[in-house]
Amino acid sequence: MTRPKYRIRVLNAISPSGLQRFPDDRYEVGDAIERPDAILVRSRDLHRSTIDAHVRAIARAGAGTNNIPVEEMSRRGVPVFNAPGANANAVKELVLGALLLAARNIVPALRYVSQLDGGAADLEAMVEDGKRQFAGGELAGRTLGIVGLGAIGSLVADTAIKLGMNVVGFDPEITVEAAWRLPSSVRKANSLEDLLRQADFVTLHVPLLDVTRNLVDARRLAVIKPGASLLNFARHAIVDEDAVVDALRQTRLKYYLCDFPSKVLLGQPNVIALPHLGASTEEAEENCAVMAVDQLRAFFEHGTISNAVNFPSVEMMRESPYRVAIANANVPNMLGQISTAMARAGLNIHNMVNKSRGEMAYTLVDVDSPVPDALLEMLASIEGVLSVRTIPAPDDA
Fold first, then answer.
1. CA 63/CA 298 separation, integer angstroms
2. Are residues 155 and 241 in the same domain?
3. Alpha helices in 217-328 (DSSP H)
4. Dihedral sign, Cα of residue 107, residue 111, residue 114, residue 119
5. H or E segment at 128?
6. pLDDT confidence band for 240 (50 / 70 / 90)
7. What angle do CA 287, 291, 294 make, to 5 degrees?
8. Phi and psi dihedrals of 149, rounded to 5?
9. Which residues contact 78 (CB under 8 A, 6 or more apart)?
10. Residue 4 and residue 263: Cα distance in Å, rounded?
11. In this structure, are 223 and 152 located in the same domain?
12. Residue 3: its pLDDT value, please?
């Protein structure tokens, strides 16, 4: 059995530290690849592109996947991988910087100094007189509310506690793994409104989903602690920007600090908008690229799946050179039909694993002899099967 050479189309600039992990003898990688087996992407909007029918997987070198048509890929049996946590430290450090900007009124202070006349005889007096209007407060003893306690939120919580802040968190979808990672001194809010009423600073770290779109709106800003600062380094649409501007004008909010400049926000006083710098560090870009590449390699070379936003995580020790991977709808009797088809083809099953996630399921099967094309066609014809492929053993030449 000859090893296939997989074709990876790269969109956007991907860190060389990640791309060099593709072995030259197994992968063809580039931005002009035709009929790719996989797409590796950062920010390119794939909703506006036609994704080749040959594509078996998409990997994003980052956390969010709102630039990828995930539902369409699920219907085609194509896993969409992301890199959760790979940029968490970079975002955490930027959030820390934003907290300091808000607490110490640094941005308006910088603007004031930039307008001073360096040649004025009374420059020193102007500095001393002007600084009074920018007096701020210290972070220690203040309350930070964190909405979303995943990889980034837990790092922000840990850093804030070390700075002497009180931390209250809200995350109804928190995983067991995230809960273990969270510092024990983080207090749990009973609701988002409960958190907003308590916090001097509120930072958002949730993905953009239907349920989180405009999560912070006029109704919720009406209950926020007067004079609080709101930080959004997650996704712009989590916040209703018009409602934020109104809250700033009413001085209910002191500052809105975010990573997403927009027509609504630009020029507004007390809005500090950065040009999407959250993951823009050399280290974060490298971490994201390495994770995305390793996930694609594991998928193509072993059939295993981890960190797919639309597929279950599946691992299985190899017991045979002959492995079949099947993506299918999560419907009754699918395993029975797969097993029956293999038995009729005269194949003995060494090992099988099947896991599901919502409407999607994924099956790996190790058999004791080569898989004929006729069986692959038979499996593909089963109602609910979305994709079928064989995976050569790693040591095949």
1. 19
2. yes
3. 218-221, 241-249, 282-302
4. negative
5. helix 123-130
6. very high
7. 140
8. -120, 45
9. 55, 56, 57, 58, 327, 387
10. 49
11. yes
12. 67
Mean pLDDT, to the nearest integer, of 9-18?
94
By C-alpha distance, which of 97, 396, 103, 372 is closest to 228?
A: 103
Query: What pLDDT does residue 350 have?
Result: 92
**Tally of domains in the chain:** 3
Structure confidence by residue, pLDDT tens digits, 48-84: 889 999 999 999 999 889 899 999 999 999 999 999 9
Tell me the CATH number at 367: 3.30.70.260
Decide: 301 and 77 in contact? Cβ < 8 Å.
no
Q: How far apart are CA 81 and CA 42, in angstroms?
A: 11
Do 331 and 391 belong together in one domain? yes
Of 295, 311, 327, the last residue of a domain is 311
Task: Classify 20 as helix, strand or coil.
Answer: coil
- The pLDDT of residue 373 is 95
Domain range holding 340? 312-397
Inter-residue contact 76 to 380 (CB < 8 Å): no
**Is pLDDT above 80 for 220?**
yes
> Which one of 242, 272, 302 terminates a domain?
272
pLDDT band at 397 (very low <50, low <70, confident <90, very high): very low
What is the spatial distance between Cα 25 and Cα 9, in angstroms, rounded to a whole number? 16
- The β-bridge relationship of strands 228-232 and 201-204 is parallel
pLDDT digits (tens, 9 = 90+) for 319-339: 899 999 999 999 999 999 999
CA–CA dist 165, 14 (Å, integer): 37
Residue 361 has pLDDT above 80, yes or no: yes
CA 196 – CA 347 distance, rounded (Å): 60
Residues 142 and 235 in one domain: yes
Rounded-to-integer distance, Cα 233 and Cα 252, Å: 20
| Shared domain check, 258 and 183 | yes
Do 94 and 176 fall into the same domain?
yes
CATH number where 299 lies: 3.40.50.720
Quick: pLDDT tens for 79-105: 999 999 999 999 999 999 999 999 999
Q: Are residues 177 and 105 in the same domain?
A: yes
Q: Are residues 203 and 240 in the same domain?
A: yes
The CA–CA distances, whole Å, from 53 to 5, 34, 73, 387 equal 18, 11, 10, 11
Enter the tokens of residue 317: 């020790």
